[in-house]
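--- STAGE predict ---
source: upstream dedup step, 1 unique chain passed
mode: sequence only
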Amino acid sequence: MRADEMAGGQVQAERFTAQLLAGQPARDPAAVAGRLLAIQSQDPRGARLAIRARTAGLTAADVDRAFTQDRALLITWLNRGTLHLIRSADYWWLHRLTAKPQFQLGCLRILARLGISASAAEAGVEVARKALAADGPQTSAQLAGRLAAAGVPAAGGAVLHVLMLASLRGLVVRGPMAGTQHAYALVADWLGKPPRELDRDAALSELARRYLAGHGPAFDRDLAKWAGLPLGQVRRGLTAIAAELRDRPDGLAELAAGYPREVSVPAPRLLGAFDPVLLGWASREPVLGTQRAIVTVNGLFRPFALVDGKAAGTWAWTGGQVVLDRFGELAAQARTALAADARDVRRFLTGPASLASAAGARQPEIAGAEPEAGPDHDEIARPS
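--- STAGE serialize ---
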């Protein structure tokens, strides 16, 4: 192996460990969000699976509890104008720093294309605010009827973009769960009084510090791309915490605290849609290599299997089971590990009661379990 390949493998191992995919798992959903800072969340199941892959023994219900009873997590539009799951404690400074004013202009342009004037959009934001103030958290479906009275039709995505506009303005967030749906809540009611505001330099320093905790070692351009901020601003933050960084010959930035640490490549793992390990750096090549099936032409990130630190196939949750399409042959040990992880995905998504009902059902390993599936297609969590 060439020296540059060895060095690249070490960097990836360090990043996997920072990402909580190797080493000690996090204790709870808030600890995952705290380490990663922001988890892309336009796919609700994918965001929950990101937490599953970095914890042990939790279920999707535990994540929902962190949203609802604990109020420890929330989802809102942040980096790059995209939905992210974050700790509630990080909302104030991260929203001010990354929810750019131009994102609001983008919302208004989309609404205009949908036939919603700027004045109707403003009226819709006010209707949503008053409804949430009067009646507490509500889902978008519940708000749609009230917004219709303000000239915002339920169809075509107009409701979503009015609520996005309200979110970008710091008025609302996706807070508690209402059954299987995420409800919007007023920031003032759900989060209470804001803490003392960080000035921009302090916020950039905190961004650099927290990003490196969950993504280091990394280049400044990696942080700029992830946060959607200008490279100059990112460099200001990194420069401000220079005393906290470890000197590296490769020019990558890394926090000195806790170093040296044991790092390793993760055990074979099933990762969900939009997993953070594909979104935290300027290049996805170290994980994807030449595989292009995981990221679709319209920007969707499919669930995938990670083996030896590389993408080894895509998978889907179909009929209550994991169905894996692998890119090629896998060693028996990897197939066995992925089969076990598929059972854990099922446990996480459906809960122990559902898993117990399938007790005694054959749980085939990937290797040859279903010959009719073909050499690159497996069912790896099949109830009877």
